[in-house]
Write a structure and sequence with these properties.
Blueprint: H1 5-11, E1 18-22, E2 33-38, E3 44-49, E4 56-61, E5 67-71, E6 85-86, E7 103-104
Parallel strand pairs: 6-7
Antiparallel strand pairs: 1-5, 2-3, 3-4, 4-5
């Protein structure tokens, strides 16, 4: 779970949530448009989204170039695991409950 303001705006919800995979294990079919921005951490983030409807599907970070995040809402089943990490909690809406088993960070995992 990421509570940064950019994820809140991107997702239209109080947090963004991605499931991360090794990029080599993921294939993306169809058209997507990319947008790269600077994250709250200062690192580059590239978002992939549908050029027709704007739905965000994937995310790549300069910090983890061998990985790719897939938006939980884009996964066809409702069987995703719960969050294991909650970052940028300084922007967390107070009513959002974090699982007791999740790692929690006021900012990013490395303090940025």
């Amino acid at each position: 779970m990421c509570h940064c303001k950019a994820c809140q705006r991107r997702s239209g919800s109080p947090f963004g949530m991605m499931v991360y995979f090794a990029a080599e294990d993921v294939s993306i079919a169809g058209n997507s448009t990319q947008y790269t921005r600077t994250a709250d951490s200062g690192d580059a983030l590239t978002h992939g989204f549908c050029p027709v409807c704007g739905t965000p599907f994937w995310l790549k970070t300069a910090k983890h170039p061998a990985g790719i995040g897939i938006a939980v809402g884009a996964i066809e089943t409702n069987e995703s695991a719960g969050p294991v990490r909650s970052v940028f909690e300084e922007n967390r809406h107070p009513w959002v409950q974090i699982p007791a088993t999740a790692q929690r960070f006021e900012r990013g995992r490395d303090g940025r």
